[in-house]
Design brief:
This protein is α/β, with parallel strands linked by helices and 611 residues long. The chain has four domains: 193 residues, Rossmann fold (3-Layer(aba) Sandwich); 193 residues, 3-Layer(aba) Sandwich (Rossmann fold), CATH 3.40.50.300; 106 residues, Winged helix-like DNA-binding domain superfamily/Winged helix DNA-binding domain (Arc Repressor Mutant, subunit A); 78 residues, DNA polymerase, domain 1, CATH 1.10.150. Helices cover 45% and strands 12% of the residues. The protein has a seven-stranded parallel sheet, sandwiched between helices. Strands 8-13-12-9-11-10 form a six-stranded parallel sheet, sandwiched between helices. A hairpin with a 4-residue loop joins strand 15 and strand 16. The structure holds adenosine-5'-diphosphate (ADP) and zinc ion (ZN). Adenosine-5'-diphosphate binds next to helix 3.
Length: 611
């Protein structure tokens, strides 16, 4: 905290952005938000992950007199957030339970002496009377409530302590307040403004598109093998997250990946806290770790260079899926969201809903969430268009998803659908029996199984009438009929039954266009955009880029901070391309502000000169 930025009161927003953060210009709504808050107004900011929310409160905190207060639920990340600010010469600190009493006292004194630009506090600490009294004795410039969707009681990140933050309006009159989140739904948006007591705030709602993320969903046949093939199609050493539904899947998958030579770690709520912390810390600090996790690994994963997010189980909702995939490519560089999805997922999710807690209305809502997710999986249109449409944004085909890059073929599934439905009807009417997909497919394909012989199902009129399709094809038919509600799966064993709309198909009144599954796209055959920063570096600059990376790793190790706190990948790429020869040449390079120029200038110029 001994390095200081230029006297804050004389700084205007653009100079601050350039001098402190090393950026040429504001992006998107950043300028408008910063202007609103510097003028003393409140703001509600909805911006996707990677949109650049931090700048919108950090710049006002530096420009306005006093200290900016950042309310964040993520104690584990405060250390790195503060380290990143200190690296830019910003006088930042945090107050939380990981500190020793004398460390906390030092921060409190610095605050009261007006020597802090920003202070991070968790909501539970902020709600303590002594914390508020302390803050009232000093001077706040702005209050930023990060991850503001935590105030929503219906969301999965709900934190009761957030409900008390509405009182900040009265506790700190005249201090502009901001609520920031990457959660897009309208309902959450309204709830944030209401519960955080921001009736007069200006609302800034950015597009939720993440154009640098390529969406891909492929049929699930052998998920682990498919996953390994997908990871193998990424550049070596790519950092990624693999999401699975259960703790068991997570552990087994992590083990399997390790056996395949991939540096994978597990993360789920059942692991001891110290194992979770150690795995998270390795993921954040090292290059190329693949974290296999349940959704417990989530909010606020602040690593900017996650190159892929893979789902090996179907998420429960489009909101969840979008939030999870959004953790890829925060730095704006090309990244991939990949998912393997199959019939088993549909049956399993329906079973969870049936067997789960909650009244009818609740189950109906869950069912709607699942239906939207299935529609995304089965669409023959652009995935991104479907996703953005779900959040109320209209757009054209994106050119950067699997269906845009390799448009799927459709085929007429009416006859197979009729064969399947009539088998179900016959079994029910003639024998009062219901079965799951596996046995029905055996009947249709004329299989010779013990169950068929015992039950005498080879006597059914539909026995063997579907032998023209492979088992895989049939599973695809069943999956798509289920996804569209032309078939329902029930009970513990996922037995199949007719839905209200099945009749139209049986009578041949409704067409049944189906998507033809293409297997094994993950092998890299599709046109993948250059997906790593290393690949975007011209061949001739590659050795220098690698030398800079090694230098950065060394710096990060010495200081005990993640590599991106030193310089991000885009900055290294610019250095390798522009080959600055003097300290003044560093000025035009994005991400090098005054402090970093001073701290690393000579050292990085030496690496460039040697390269
Ligand atoms: P968010 O909090 O919205 O997920 P961040 O604040 O972490 O996003 O910013 C995402 C990335 O974009 C960071 O690497 C940040 O340094 C970079 N960034 C933000 N604003 C700008 C800007 N105006 N110019 C260049 N880079 C920016
Ligand atoms: Zn598309």
């Amino acid at each position: 905290m001994n390095d200081t930025v230029p006297a804050t009161s004389t700084l205007d927003a653009s100079t601050c952005l350039r001098e402190v953060f090393g950026y040429d210009s504001f992006r998107g709504d950043q300028q408008a938000i910063v202007d609103q808050v510097i003028a003393g107004g409140d703001a509600v900011v909805l911006m996707p992950t990677g949109g650049g929310k931090s700048i919108t409160y950090q710049v006002p905190a530096l420009v306005r007199p006093g200290t900016g207060l950042v309310v964040s639920p993520l104690i584990a990340l405060m250390h790195d957030q503060v380290a990143a600010l200190l690296a830019n010469g910003v006088r930042a600190a945090y107050l939380n339970s990981t500190q020793l009493p004398h460390e906390r006292q030092e921060v409190e004194q610095a605050y009261l002496a007006g020597e802090l630009d920003l202070v991070y506090v968790a909501p539970e600490r902020l709600n303590l009377p002594q914390t508020k009294q302390l803050l009232q004795r000093g001077r706040l410039s702005v209050i930023a409530i990060d991850e503001a969707h935590c105030v929503s009681q219906w969301g999965h990140d709900f934190r009761p302590d957030y409900l008390q933050l509405g009182a900040l309006a009265d506790d700190f009159p005249g201090v502009p307040r901001m609520a920031l989140t990457a959660t897009a739904t309208q309902a959450t948006h309204r709830e944030i403004a209401q519960r955080l007591n921001l009736p007069d705030a200006r609302h800034f709602v950015a597009s939720f598109d993440r154009p640098n993320i390529q969406y891909r969903i492929e049929p699930k046949t052998d998920p682990r093998r498919q996953l390994v093939a997908f990871i193998g199609s990424m550049p070596a050493g790519a950092t990624g997250i693999v999401y699975g539904l259960s703790r068991k899947t997570v552990e087994q998958t992590a083990e399997y990946l390790c056996g395949q030579g991939i540096d994978a770690l597990p993360y789920h709520a059942g692991l001891p806290a110290e194992v979770r912390a150690a795995n998270q810390s390795r993921f954040l600090r090292e290059d190329g770790v693949v974290m296999v996790a349940t959704i417990a690994f989530g909010m606020g994963i602040d690593k900017p260079d996650v190159r892929f997010v893979a789902h090996i189980d179907l998420p429960k909702s489009v909101e969840g899926y979008y939030q999870e995939t959004g953790r890829a490519g925060r730095d704006g560089e090309a990244s991939i969201a990949w998912m393997a999805y199959g019939l088993g997922d549909v049956v399993q999710q329906r079973r969870f809903i049936d067997a789960g807690e909650g009244d009818r209305a609740f189950k109906q809502r869950q069912q709607q969430h699942l239906d939207a997710m299935l529609a995304l999986c089965e669409t023959v249109g652009c995935r991104r268009q479907n996703l953005l449409g779900y959040f109320g944004e209209s757009s054209g085909p994106c050119g950067n998803c699997d269906t845009c890059l390799t448009p799927p073929e459709t085929w007429d599934g009416l006859v197979p659908a009729q064969k399947l439905l009539s088998t179900i009807v016959r079994l029910q009417r003639e024998r009062g029996q219901s079965f799951g997909a596996g046995h029905l497919i055996d009947i249709l394909r004329g299989g010779d199984t013990q169950r068929i012989r015992q039950q005498g199902h080879d006597k059914l009129a539909t026995f063997g009438i579907g032998a023209d399709l492979s088992e895989q094809d049939w599973r695809s038919v069943v999956r798509q009929l289920l996804a569209r509600g032309l078939l329902v799966s029930q009970g513990e064993y996922g037995v199949l039954g007719l839905s209200e709309t099945s009749g139209g198909v049986l009578r041949g009144e409704s067409p049944v266009p189906l998507r033809r599954d293409v297997l094994g796209r993950s092998g890299g055959s599709s046109r993948v955009r250059k997906s790593s920063v290393a690949e975007q570096v011209a061949e001739g600059d590659r050795p220098l880029f690698e030398a800079l990376r090694a230098w950065r790793a060394e710096q990060a190790r010495e200081q005990g901070v993640p590599a991106y706190v030193v310089f991000n990948d885009a900055t290294l790429r610019a250095l390798a391309q522009l080959r600055p020869a003097s300290v003044t040449d560093l000025d035009g390079i994005s991400g090098i502000g005054a402090k970093k120029r001073e701290a690393y200038g000579e050292s990085v110029l030496a690496v460039v000169a040697a390269g």
